[in-house]
Amino acid sequence: MAYNIAIIGGGPGGYVAAIRAAQLGAKVAVVEKADLGGTCLNWGCIPTKALVAGTETLHMVKKSEEFGISADNPTVNFAAMMERKNQVVQRLVKGINYLFKKNKIVLYEGIGMLASVNRIEVMKNDGTAEKIEAENIIIATGSEPALITSLGYDGDRVITSNEALSLTEIPRSLLIIGGGVIGCEFACIFAELGCDITIVDVMPAILPGIEEEASKLMQSLFKRRKIKVITSAKIAEVRKDSGSVTAVLDSGEELAAEKVLISIGRTFNTEGLGLRELGIEQGPKNEITVNSRMQTNIPNIYAIGDITNKIQLAHVASAQGITAVENIMGRQKEMNYDVVPNCIFTAPEIAGVGITSRQAREQGINISSGKFPFMALGKAQASGKTDGFVKILADVKTDRILGVHIVGPHATDLIAEAALAVRLGATSEQLAETIHAHPTLAEAMMEAAEAVHGKSIHT
Fold first, then answer.
1. Which of 401, 384, 385 has the alpha carbon at shortest distance from 445?
2. Per the CATH hierarchy, to which homologous superfamily does domain 342-451 belong?
3. Which of 13, 35, 208, 240 could be a cystine partner for 305, CB 3.0 to 4.6 Å?
4. pTM, to two decimals
5. 118: helix, coil or strand?
6. Is 438 a catalytic residue?
C-alpha cells in the first residue's frame, strides 16, 4: 500500500491524528478540501475567540475609569478587529502546514470519497483526480451549521455562524435563533459591540446542558447587559421586509432585526463519501457508528470527530484521532467520555466537567455540594471580575468529586484542575487540603472544595 494511514479531513481530529501517526512511524496522507484546521480553526473556536479577545479589551477600556485610567469615548474599528481575527487564523493554519512538512505528511487538496476499503478517490481542487491506496482509512469530515431554509436562510440577512464571522459591519440589531453555546457566544460578542440582541429558544432555559445554577445566572447576567432572552418559544414564520427581518413567534409576537443568526445545531458531513456503497453502518442522524476504539464495522476504516455524534468538541475529536491512530499502530486504547471539559466563551466564561446536579438526580446519586462566589475572592476583586462561582459536586458516601461547574473569569482555564481531579478520583477533602497560591482565581476551587463540608474560610 502507498500509505499506512490515509485521513479524509484535516480538522482538529484529522490533523492531530495525522501528526500522531507520523510520530509513530506511519506513512500518512491527508485529504482536505479547504484550509487545514477545519471548522474549529477557520470558522469556529479560534476566530470567535479572537473576536472575544477584542470585545473583552473593549469592555475593560469602557470601565477603565474604575482603575484610575482615563480613556474617553473608545471607538471600534470593526474592519481591523476582523482583520486581526483573520491574521490569527492564517498564522495557525500556516503552523499546521509546517507541522505536516516536518512530519512528512502528504497533503492532497481536494474532496475525498471511499472507492473501496483500501482506496480513496480524490477530486483535487485543480480539477484533476487521483487515487490513494492505504492500509487504513480514518474519516474525519466534521459537520456544518444546519442551513434551515424554512427559517429564511439566505447567507445575507439570515445567516449562520460562518457568515457571522465574515460580516463587514456591525449589525444594529441581531435576532439569534437558538440559545445554545454558539448563540450565546455570539450574543456576548455583538452585544459588547453595541448591537441590540434578542435570543429566542424553544427550551425553557438557555444553555440547557450546563449546571442549572449556571444557566440561571447567565440568564440574569444577560438581562443586566440588556440581552433579551425569550425561552419556550418557537419561530412560526420569518418575513423579510425592505429594511429588516421579522420573526413571528408561535405566540403571535413579532421580533424585527437587521439580521437573524440561526444557531440551532449542525449537520454531519457524511454525504458523498461512499459510506452506503461500502456498507459502513450509520446511525439515525446519519452519524458514523464506531466502537470505543473508533473503528467502524469495517475493521480498517475508522471515524472520528463530529461525524461520530459523541461529543461535538474539538478536543474530543483530537482525542478520538489519537485513539484511532494508536489502535491502528498496534497499541490498545479506548475512548472514555466521562471526563470531558466543556467550555463556553461567553462573558463571563462558563466551564464544567463531570456530572451536573440534574444528572446526579436522574442517576440516583446522593451528592453534597460546595459553592464559592468569585465576589468573595481577593484576586477577583482586584481584577474587577467578580461575577460567578465555582461549584463542586461530591459523592456523599465517598467524598469523590463527581462534577465541577464554573461561571466566572478564566473559567475555561480553571476547569483543567477540576478535570484532573475528576479523572483521578480525588476527594473534595484532598482538593481542599491542596495548597493554592494566593492571590489567584484558583483559590475559588479550593474554597468550593472546603464548602462541600461547610469549611470555606471566606464565606
1. 401
2. FAD/NAD-linked reductase, C-terminal dimerisation domain (3.30.390.30)
3. 13
4. 0.95
5. coil
6. yes
